[in-house]
Design a protein that fits this description.
2 helices, alpha+beta, about 20% helix, two-stranded antiparallel sheet, seven-stranded mixed β-barrel, about 160 residues
Amino acid sequence: MPPQLITVNSRKYDQSIRRSWQCELLERNGSMLLFRGVFDDSVSHPDLGEIKRGTISYEYYWLDRWYNIFRFHEPDGTLSKYYCNINMPPVFENGVLDYIDLDLDVVVWPGSNYMILDEVEYKENAIKYRYSEEVLLNAAAALSDVVSLIKNNQLPA
């Protein structure tokens, strides 16, 4: 059976698409979806450094959670880092996964050292887009959940 290709759309709060890519659906278990993607081109990121062409991304999404977790592996298979997005729960329909990225992220390096990213951008967008109290509370709870997963060594392996 050929792999099922999925389009992932990371959207801004106003629904405009921020990034879009294709990946392969590996597993669906209840509300959890696991995808696998491969970077077609190298990407330079100010906080993550160079993401090489051929980097493999295992992407964990939950349809009922306010975060997703990407596990990056170097092209040779070595674990590189985790990248956790705080986002509204995604919608998965007709081979497309859509989620609203709330611009608050956590990067985790091997050894569980982590850094919370984009807090200023999150606060600016919360004002710009008028995030509701529900969104603000859920984003704060999701960030706390992600940090707890990191501290308890419970990120997906």
